[in-house]
Write a structure and sequence with these properties.
This protein has one domain: NAD(P)-binding Rossmann-like Domain (Rossmann fold). It is built from six helices and nine strands; from the N terminus they run βαβαβαβαβαβββαβ. Strand 2, helix 2 and strand 3 form a beta-alpha-beta unit. The relative contact order is 0.14. By secondary structure, it is of the alpha/beta class. 41% of the residues lie in helices and 17% in strands. The chain starts with a strand and ends in a 9-residue tail after the last strand.
Length: 242
C-alpha cells in the first residue's frame, strides 16, 4: 500500500488530494500549521487506519523530519510527497516588508525545499524510487497587471526551478519530480470575494475546482515516464483569453 506525505492538507487542494489518496486505498501523512484544524481534517477523512497527522511549520526542518518519521513508524516508509503548503497575497512591490518577504520565502520555498530534503533522504535509503509533486502557479510565467504579487511569485518561481533541477539530480535514484501549476482554483484561499468574477481569465471561461487539481496531481504521481514536467492547470489562461 502506497504512502504519501501531503503538506498544507488542512483544507483546499491538499485535503482533497488526501481524500482521493485514501479513497483509492493509500496511506497519508497530512500536515498543517493549525493542530486543531488538522485534527478535524484527519477525522473527516474517515479512515483512521490510513491517516496520520503531523502539525507544524514546514519552514522548520524538524517538521519535515517529523513527517517522515510518522510515515515510517505508521506505514513503513514513504512513496509520494505532495508539496502543497503555500501562501499567497497581493501587495505593491515597493510596499512589501522584509518580514512579509521572509514569510513567503519561508513557507513557499524554504518549506518545500526542507521537506523535500527529508523525504528524499528516506526515499534514497529505501532504494525503491518515488514521486514528488510540487504545487506552483501559472502566474510565475504569466503575470497579470493589477495582481501585484512579486513576493509570493518569487518564492513559487523558486519551486518551479527546484522541480526541474531535482528531476535531473534525482533521476538516477528513480525519484520523479513534477509540478502542477494551477490558475484560478476555487479554494478557501479566495475567501472574501467572488472567485467566479475571474472566470474570464481562462479560455474555458470558468475557474477550476479542487477535484481537477487532485486529478492532475494523481496523474503525475502515477505517470512513471514523466519527470521535470510543469503541468499547467489553468483552463487555457496561459494560452489566451476567452
Amino acid at each position: 500500500m502506497s504512502t504519501a506525505i501531503i503538506t498544507g492538507a488542512s483544507s483546499g487542494i491538499g485535503l482533497d488530494v488526501a481524500r482521493a489518496y485514501v479513497k483509492r486505498g493509500g496511506n497519508v501523512v497530512i500536515n498543517g500549521r493549525d493542530a486543531a484544524k488538522l485534527a478535524d481534517a484527519a477525522a473527516g477523512l474517515g479512515a483512521p487506519a490510513q491517516v496520520a497527522a503531523v502539525a507544524g511549520d514546514i519552514g522548520a526542518a524538524s517538521t519535515g523530519a517529523a513527517l517522515v518519521q510518522a510515515a515510517v513508524e505508521r506505514f513503513g516508509g514513504v512513496d509520494v510527497l505532495v508539496n502543497n503548503a503555500g501562501i499567497f497575497g497581493v501587495k505593491p512591490f515597493v510596499d512589501v516588508t522584509e518580514d512579509e518577504l521572509d514569510g513567503y520565502l519561508g513557507i513557499n520555498l524554504r518549506g518545500t525545499y526542507l521537506t523535500t530534503q527529508a523525504v528524499v533522504r528516506r526515499m534514497a535509503a529505501q532504494g525503491t524510487g518515488g514521486s514528488i509533486v510540487n504545487i506552483g502557479t501559472v502566474f510565475v510565467d504569466h503575470a497579470k497587471t493589477g495582481v501585484p504579487a512579486s513576493a509570493p511569485l518569487a518564492a513559487k518561481g523558486g519551486v518551479h526551478a527546484l522541480t526541474v533541477s531535482l528531476a535531473a539530480e534525482l533521476a538516477p535514484l528513480g525519484i520523479r519530480v513534477n509540478l502542477v501549476a494551477p490558475g484560478i482554483i476555487r479554494t478557501p484561499l479566495h475567501q472574501g470575494f467572488d472567485v467566479d468574477d475571474l472566470a474570464g481569465l481562462a479560455l474555458l471561461d470558468r475557474v477550476g475546482e479542487v477535484a481537477e487539481t487532485t486529478d492532475a496531481v494523481l496523474y503525475l504521481v502515477d505517470s512513471g515516464f514523466i519527470t521535470g514536467h510543469i503541468l499547467n492547470l489553468d483552463g487555457g489562461y496561459v494560452s489566451g483569453r476567452a
